[in-house]
Amino acid sequence: MEPVDEFNIEIVASDIDTEVLRKKKFGIYNERSLQHVSPQTIAKYMKRVADGNHRLMEELRNSVKFTQANLMEAMDNKFYRGFSVVFCRNLLIYFDDLSRRESGELVPTQLTHLAHDGLIQFSRLFFKVATTLKPDLSAFAIVPVQIDMRTHIQQLILAKLLIDFGTQRIFRGIRPDVALAEAFGSGRRVRGYRPGSRGAADYGFLAQDVVRTWAG
User: Fold this and answer.
1) Which pLDDT tens digit goes with each residue over 50-68?
2) Is the distance from CB of 174 to CB of 146 less than 8 angstroms?
3) CB 107 within 8 A of CB 143
4) Is 25 inside any structural domain?
5) Which of 82, 84, 65, 60 is nearest to 21 (CA)?
6) Domain count, the chain
7) End-to-end CA, the chain
8) Does residue 98 carry a pLDDT above 50?
9) Quick check: is 178 in a domain?
10) Residue span of the structural domain in which 30 resides
11) What ranges in 46-169 are assigned the alpha helix state H?
């Protein structure tokens, strides 16, 4: 494994509850929260505090950006772009049937090794929720973004995703296009801002995939 210091890593933690965010900023964990963490890891990155709890070292606490966000509100999420991996904990169980029908479970991802590993972890959580808590939770598809199939690494990761998830769960992706950023900055939909752009075309194909798979 390559040293983490060689990578430019940004971590963003979000929740709809500001009180939860306030507590998490302190980085304090009880024994139950750490039951699956090795003693070596705890000793290296944490120190014992009152009541038998452990607190994450200050350097790591300061590396996380905490933000309040409601995932059902578009305005709350407009600044969250370009993530390689998204981890969800106890999230999908809060979406009711109506919200799932309105939004579906589209999972955007870049075609990188790190993103591929994150999708594997996410899918395990998703299907665990679907089989234990929400039997009707079945609409799940991956949308590759920033795709450039001229690169070998993206070809390799896409091939892995097709093997791992099947063609029905991999929708047509979104290519890089400056028109997407310009349309977003002007507050307009890309199909109205520049209908002939490849960004507009890609989102049109994605809409077709969604309708064909989930509403057809």
Assistant:
1) 888 999 998 888 888 888 8
2) yes
3) yes
4) yes
5) 65
6) 1
7) 44
8) no
9) no
10) 1-69
11) 58-61, 74-77, 97-103, 113-132, 152-165
Report the alpha-carbon distance of residue 164 to residue 179 in Å, rounded: 32
Cα–Cα dist 53/27, whole Å? 10
Task: Choose among 78, 209, 95: nearest CA to 143.
Answer: 209
Q: Is residue 122 part of a domain?
A: no
Q: Note the pLDDT tens digit of each residue in 103-116.
A: 457 889 999 999 99
In the structure encoding, which two tokens stand for residue 9, read together? 């890593």
Half-sphere exposure of 127 (CA within 13 A, CB side): 7
Q: Is the dihedral of CA 129, 140, 184, 151 positive or negative?
A: positive
> What is the structure's pLDDT at 110?
93
Report helix, strand and coil shares of the chain as percent, to nearest 5.
Answer: 50, 15, 40
pLDDT of residue 91: 63
Give the pLDDT of residue 144: 94
Instruction: Say how many C-beta atoms besides its own lie within 10 A of residue 120's C-beta.
Output: 13
Please say whether the beta carbons of 162 and 119 come within 8 A. no
pLDDT of residue 37: 87
Are the C-beta atoms of 46 and 55 separated by less than 8 Å? Answer: yes
Nearest Cα to Cα of residue 37 among 17, 54, 20? 54
* Residue 161, in any domain of the structure: no
